[in-house]
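Give me the fold.
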Amino acid sequence: MDSKKDKLKFLLANLPWYKDGRCGVRAGSRWPHIRDEREDSYLPFPFFLAYASSLLKKHDFDAYLIDAIAEKATEQEFLNRAARLHIDYLVAETSVPSFCDDIRLLEKLSSSGISIILCGPTSESYEPEFLEAHPFISFVLYGEYEFTLLELASALIEGRGLSHIKGLIYRDQARVRKNPKRGPFDINTLPWPQREGLPMHRYLDAPGGMPLPSVQMVASRGCPFGCNFCLWPQVMYQGSHYRTRCVKDVADEMEHLVKEKGFRSVYFDDDTFNIGKERMLEFCAELKGRGLDRIPWAIMARPDLMDEDVLRNMKEAGLWAVKYGVESAAKKLTSRAGKSMDLKKAEAMIRLTNNLGIRTHLTFTFGLPGETKATLESTIRLAKRLDPFSVQFSIATPFPGTVFFNELDRENRILTKDWSSYDGQHSCVFQPANLSPGELEEAKRRAYGEWERHCAKRLAKRGRIKAFLGSMKDHGLRKTIGKTAGYLARTRPAAYLTGYRRNSYLGLLRRYLDAHGAKAAALKVKEELSLSNLKDKYLRALGAYDGEYAYLGPHHVQIDLTNRCNNSCLACWCNSPLFKTPRMSEKEKNEHLPLGMVKGLIDELAAMGTKEIGYSGSGEPFMHPDIMEILEYTKKKGLFCLVNTNFTLLDRPKLKRIADMGLDSITISLWAATAGTYKRTHPGRTEEDFSRLMENLAYLNEIKKGKPRVHLYNVVFSMNYFEIEGMVDLAVRTSSEMLGFALVDTIPGVTDQLLLNKKQLEELKHACLRIRSRLNAASHLVPEGIFLHRFDDFFRRLSVFNDAAVAKYDRNIIDSMPCYNGWLFARVIPNGQVHSCLKAHRIPVGSLYKNKFSEIWNSHAQMYFRKKTKVYQKSDHFFRSIGNDPGICEAGCYKGCDDIGRNAWMRDRMAMLTFPEKCVLRSIAGTLRMSRGKKI
């Protein structure tokens, strides 16, 4: 070993990447994204990193490889491990949707003296300007980087110049230089990828349910076809450069992995495996000759390149499954996207594959150029008609650097350049020519819904649903659910804790551990597994599948005790001094709920299964004469109790009483980090008021014994946006537990003068990026232990400048999920009216002066609200009645949904149900609907 090469240490890394407790997929994926529930434990092998590390080791460099995603390492765990290795250079493979998170983490690493080398399919980093703007990054390797990294490492060791290294961007004293791109090389010159030291049992891409453990390989690299949306050929390979490995070497590696490493199946993750009939037949013969035809294997292939002879030979050689990229049922769409495919032959070959007993996985892409409602429906019908083993529907993602992105950018149809949205999984980031982004997102959800129903019909043919319904008739609902749970536990034990559900639960547990410690987390787990919580989970889901009826009371109820308020907050939609005439009459201002009515309501809610009651609204709760008795009564009933207050009416005796009663949470509306800004945003208040408020806050945090959790809340607008980082510091100084931000919700012609302009939004975004750099991505905690509540939502809202500048903060997300609020939430206002949404005050569903809450909860008005709102697209005129704006011509929800957190929570709960659970719940819901219909 050359002793010189032992002086520098290189760490190659697939960095941690989490979002809202979910884990991302980056290195090894042509489609980097945050995983959802349909992918189970899917995790691709990081081929580029593994080949690069193996190449360095072959040339005697001191190189390490860490896949933090596969190891499920947190950011802090990764940072600690990197520190223990005492490395000189970190080589990080990035991706478009993880880019901002990657850069934030890399900046942290660079502060410890580690030099950063960037690589991966992120075209933004391929320009010299990127290196100029990020001084903490030393080098960028663009394109295929294995030999670029090897040559760079050699030059650094030997002290040579860098101008000869192709595919490198570097600093030459004060200038940034970009060397010519690296041309295609013979991939047979690469050693086998490094697998030692990696958690190989966690890498999983086993289409068709291949036997586990399964391993991933490649037999070729590149693709000769020109799909304009495909990322790797255009960005990583810098062109459609197709190269193959020697068939014998591929078989050698496969034999080694199976016979010496114990893998039971192999997936070939080539860009397009089935190119060249002669080579395919040679490969099949090689496997048969070695006895490897007994080992199941799968490929990614193009269906119109298949022929019967090749397919039959592959079947004989052990082919278990094929992933086919179909994309669309409309030939004109695939042709315009550069994937000119013979769809008739493709369909014939897919059918033949199925008939031969080879399992098929078909992928479809929504939103290719020319997509219409008709072509979407044709594609969904085609997917069901072809009846594959499994499917994938995704939204076309215009990754920067692709022809697809460049065309849309030229036409000003790119909706956002917040790269974290570019994963094709959850949202559409461009304006389709013939559809709205929401229609594409809804089509994807509808496609999966129709596919699940299609699969349920396949199950029904086996008699399982029929048997379930028969048991319902003979034994009743409760016993049947028990029998079904036992059956699933015996036959599908993984159905209860796999994939998305497991990762989601573990992510939530990790966040709870970080925030509250091991003892509290253990109690939380016990609580989650309690019979009460399981009942809550299934009955709420049952209501959503029913579509109208609720089988439990609301999860959270907000009670507005009074309309009276002692503050005149500048951005308030009720009491702002900017109103020329008062928004409320004196009669309305003096309305409050009687103590007896409130206690009766609390009794009803506790009996109905409600979990939380919050006291908030247009007035200040502490102006209600019986507020302390109401809070104590709520806690006496065992409900989680929170209150939203301006905190000005609380003195030490009241704070002591609050701490003693065990109030769970108190949200304090501040809108400022300094006394001067507090005075300006609260006309009539003084700097002394702010000082007194801070003293009382410090007193509460000093005397409380764990409760209440203090949540500082700030509405952000043109008069305080510059203090957002100070607001974080204030939360730290006061030892508060939580901090939240919201962009101002304006009243047209009144408070819209408080909106942030684009320059201010840009400044705010940069400040938020600095805050994010302090944030632990998995736990959403800053290092001092403050939890930033829904900070991702706040950042998303301000990042779409065109929408944020006109206060349409949720236009880009509101159509991405149905509204479940009718099952989760209720609001009671001071005149006794009941509403199903925080902003649905123009759509009352009942009055406590006329009916009990339990009667209102499943009344015709309430069920009508549920039916109307449980949709994705909010185009119905019904939604124009939501919100504060008079004469609105679109859904009020687009302006800003105060209930989006609850809806996302329920969406995730529904998503975390396994397929068998969904089938059972749908069947029960249908049966109960029929039963209810007969009674009526």
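Confidence is low (pLDDT under 50) at residues 486-505.
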